[in-house]
Write a structure and sequence with these properties.
By secondary structure, the chain is an alpha+beta fold. It has 16 helices and 27 strands. An eight-stranded antiparallel β-sheet has the order 9-10-11-12-19-16-15-14, with helices on one face. The model is unreliable at 1-12 and 285-289 (pLDDT under 50).
């Protein structure tokens, strides 16, 4: 606009690199720049690669394309919108909630509704993907089994109380699991086996299309021969061996662009077809004794896997309401654990969008101390304390290695302290066209004081549940209590990790209060002296939140001091003991959240941008 040119001339805008900063801000891979002014030539000059410059009207220009007038600009933008909408609609993207999860408590995989392995990283869940169809379509890698007969629409289910998944057609059944036999969950990540068993009657087509490093590295395949017989297919040139062992399957290796895939048509009859994908082990080449791939061995191994997961829910104190769902949730939380260290993942995936086509596509394949502590606390309340003890030991190690004054970062790799810088993978189109695809998470550099509250709650809950107190866990409680005393009055980024300036977030203050409250309770219960600074700070936080976190005009507690927006995290005020749930101020807050943030059974975190 003329006003914008007056306030900040376009020439200055482009020469200062604002276009490049905007490109980085929204993680844009391609820019379409449309301009009609002589100063817009500076913008055209900064375009590169696949960027598109469009000149409006007459005159010399560096832009490759030209339209006559603003009406044609409107038509161009409309066509771009229609083309993108059609592309997104045509993208093969099964609903997120229709995928099933596989786990060996070190890495994870997703099985889509048609039995395609569309997501898997190796050697850990936060490593590079070898199957990334979920985020990039078939060219990003998948592993498919498809009946060639008319088997009807498949259904999918977990076997009993386990992480073994069955996909069933009328004519065939595919059973998938990541092998947890022989104590593998306690081993360091590196050796993983994905087992796929095909049963039924009639031909199936098998396509093995791994793609190294999200498909960014060229993937070549070769057949594996033993005693003159082809027994499988191996990936050539990867950092670690990857071999699909499948005796009796005749593979055809085909070129698929810059990559290679292996395909086979197999007639399934009396004997099942067993596909054993071995990652990080070269057993077929002699690095360790060959392991058989036969029906009897696989049946015993599958039974061991089912028994492993079923044992997790044994002895739990399950509620009478929604018992089956709670049991399934326990198994899911256990599946997200990284057993070798004790950490717990927030999710199995990266970059699944919060809204289709939106920018909020985050990498959650890491451990958030807050989220993991809340999950382990839920398990402890049901009678399973071991995950909480393991997580607390892991958190103690993080604090022992910490250099920041607030001790804990918002998130970590499951292996420890290695940083997770955020970047994007331009080669992947994103789930249903939702870009960017991110790896790493810049939230690790935020200050989130609220994260300490759930950690303190877990320490206290583990003690009250098991009546044991490890000295290092008390030391952890002391340290985070002292951190709260020193820092509770400071602004932070808050529970929702909004990428804005720090604020005095009410939930963060309440969680700081929770740290001190649980530390005081634990000290009292174990006969330890309660430092006066803890009780003084606890009272100060409580008084300040009631004064500055309450908005009398709106008759509700609000997200941050002197603000007027709501935040679903405010519900924690009544559940953590900060305020009596029957207090009229909390009651009014709940009612306000019901009116403004609830949509059917769901509660939005917030509505402001």
């Amino acid at each position: 606009s003329t006003q914008a040119k007056t306030l900040f001339p376009y020439t200055t805008l482009f020469r200062s690199g604002a276009l490049d900063r905007l490109r980085a801000m929204v993680s844009a891979d391609t820019v379409v720049f449309i301009g009609d002014d002589v100063t817009d030539e500076d913008g055209f000059a900064r375009l590169r690669g696949p960027d598109l410059g469009v000149k409006v009207g007459d005159g010399a220009t560096a832009a490759v394309h030209r339209v006559a007038d603003p009406e044609e600009v409107a038509g161009l933008l409309g066509r771009l919108l229609d083309e993108r909408a059609a592309w997104v609609a045509g993208h093969r993207a099964p609903a997120i909630e229709r995928h099933s999860l596989l786990s060996d408590q070190r890495t994870l995989a997703l099985v889509d509704p048609e039995a395609r392995i569309s997501w898997m990283c190796h050697p850990r869940a936060d490593s590079q993907a070898i199957f990334a169809e979920l985020l990039g379509g078939p060219t990003a890698g998948y592993f498919a089994v498809k009946p060639l007969s008319n088997g009807g629409a498949p259904i999918q289910r977990y076997v009993s109380e386990s992480m073994v998944v069955e996909t069933l057609w009328r004519t065939h059944k595919v059973t998938d699991y990541l092998d947890v036999s022989d104590g593998r969950p306690d081993e360091s990540a590196g050796r993983t086996e994905l087992v796929r068993v095909v049963e039924g009657n009639g031909p199936v087509e098998i396509t093995f299309a791994p793609r190294l490093d999200f498909g960014r590295n060229v993937t070549e395949l070769e057949t594996v021969v033993a005693d003159g017989v082809v027994i499988g297919v191996a990936v050539v040139g990867g950092h670690e061996p990857i071999t699909l062992v499948a005796p009796g399957v005749e593979w055809e290796i085909v070129d698929a662009g810059t990559h290679q895939s292996a395909r086979a048509v197999v007639h399934v009859g009396d004997d099942p077809v067993i596909l054993d994908l071995r990652l990080g082990t070269d057993s077929v080449s002699g690095d360790e004794p060959d392991r058989p791939v036969d029906e009897h061995h696989e049946a015993a191994r599958r039974a061991e896997n089912v028994a492993f997961w079923r044992a997790i829910t044994g002895g739990l104190h399950l509620p009478p309401v929604a018992t089956a769902l709670v049991r399934r949730s326990v198994i899911l939380l256990e599946a997200l654990r990284y057993r070798p260290s004790g950490a717990m993942l927030a999710a199995a995936t990266t970059s699944l969008p919060e809204s289709i086509g939106g920018l909020r596509n985050w990498d959650y394949r890491y451990c958030w101390p807050r989220d993991a502590s809340m999950s382990c606390a839920s398990l402890a309340r049901l009678g399973r304390v071991e995950p909480g003890l393991a997580l607390l030991d892991w958190l103690c190690d993080r604090i022992d290695h910490a250099t920041r004054p607030d001790l804990l970062r918002p998130l970590y790799r499951v292996t420890g302290d290695e940083h997770v810088p955020e970047g994007t993978i331009a080669e992947l189109a994103g789930y249903a066209g939702s870009r960017p695809v991110r790896i790493g998470n810049a939230a690790e550099n935020q200050v989130q004081l609220d994260a300490l509250g759930p950690v303190a709650e877990l320490v206290h809950l583990v003690f009250t549940s098991s009546h044991t107190m490890r000295p290092r866990h008390w030391a952890l409680m002391e340290k985070i209590a002292d951190v709260v005393v020193d820092h509770w009055h400071e602004p932070d980024h808050g529970i929702w990790e909004v990428r804005l300036a720090r604020q005095h977030n009410v939930v963060s203050k309440v969680m700081c209060w929770q740290v001190l409250d649980r530390a005081i309770a634990l000290a009292t219960a174990t006969g330890r002296e309660v430092p006066e600074r803890w009780t003084v700070s606890r009272s100060a936080i409580h008084a300040e939140v009631l004064e500055r976190g309450w908005n009398a005009d709106r008759n509700t507690f609000v997200s941050h001091y002197e603000g007027d927006h709501l935040d679903a995290g405010l519900l924690l005020m009544g559940t953590c003991g900060f305020i009596d749930p029957s207090d009229e101020r909390f009651d009014a807050t709940v009612r306000r959240i019901e009116r403004e943030l609830c949509d059917g059974p769901a509660v939005y975190r917030y509505h402001d941008d």
